[in-house]
Amino acid sequence: MRTWKFWLACVLASSFSHGVFSKEGEKVSLKPSQVTPEMMAKYEIDKQTIEKKPNCNDVHQPLLSAFCERPVLSELDGKVRDLMTNLPAKQAEYPQFDLLKDQAEWLSRHDQCLNEKDLKMCLELSYLTRYSELQSQFELVPKVGPLAYQCGDGKIEVSFYASELPSVMVHYQDQYRLAYMGPLSHGKEFKSHNLTFIEGKKSAVIDWDNKTLSCQQLSVN
Question: Whole-prediction pTM value?
Answer without folding.
Answer: 0.72
